[in-house]
Amino acid sequence: MAVEVTKITKVSIDLFGFDMGTGLPTPSDYRDLPYIFKRGFYKMDRENLQERLKKTTRLVLGNVSDTISAFLKTSIAPLGFAAFDLDFYSSTVHAMKILSSGHNQLLPRVYCYFDDTMGSREELYNEYTGELLAIREFNQQHEDRKIVLIHGLIHNRIIKSSWCDAMYALHVFDHPLYNNYVPDRQDDAPWG
């Protein structure tokens, strides 16, 4: 998909995937939802995955609690989208450190996908466990940055899909570009 978007927009996109490669670690406590996830789930077929990756995609292997700090010290283009599919609260908290990066590493608004914020009746996702707890704590810890659900996204889609309910946006209110006007329509008219 990134290759196609680059062709249309002429904006190059670098993709980074973070994974342990060995499957999920042992849950830390109830916040990691051990009633849904257990050690070893989602083990990676590294060889098969490496063969399918495009040249603009890099895999960062290891526990995100160890790899994210080193990654943030590298020179990357500003982050515009992040998909959080770490399953555990503890891993999500570590991965969300990228959202605390400096202004030069983030766009003023970053689209975020949190896959474990909605699910089946057995999963019972809530604001006191998992990704929803990580989001709530991030918002409490940052006065000038908030992660919020993109309300009504499904109504702006031609094909309605449940993933819209897992789309959030990080707003970096003190970003130097946050207040720059972004035209939405070709005629540059305001909503109405």
List the main descriptive attributes of the protein structure presented here.
192 residues, alpha/beta, four-stranded mixed beta sheet, two-stranded parallel ribbon, 5 helices
Give the total of domains: 1
Mean pLDDT: 90
Helical region count? 5
The total of beta strands comes to 6
Q: What portion of residues is helical?
A: 10-25%
Low-confidence stretches: none
Main beta-sheet strand count, sense and barrel state: 4 strands, mixed
Q: Which strand-content bin applies to the residues? A: 15-25%
Structural class computed from helices and strand pairing: alpha/beta
Note the overall shape: globular
Q: What's the SSE pattern?
A: HEHEHEHEHEE
For the largest beta sheet, what order do the strands appear in spatially?
3-4-6-5
Alpha-carbon Rg, integer: 18 Å
How far the N terminus sits from the C terminus, by CA atoms, comes to 32 Å
Structure description:
The protein has one domain (2-18, 27-37, 65-172). It has five helices and six strands; from the N terminus they run H-E-H-E-H-E-H-E-H-E-E. It has helices at residues 2-9, 46-52, 64-72, 89-95, 130-141; strands at residues 15-19, 57-61, 79-84, 106-114, 145-149, 167-172. The strands form two sheets. Strands 3-4-6-5 form a four-stranded mixed β-sheet. Strand 3 (79-84), helix 4 (89-95) and strand 4 (106-114) form a beta-alpha-beta unit. The two termini are 32 Å apart. The model has no long low-confidence stretch (mean pLDDT 90).
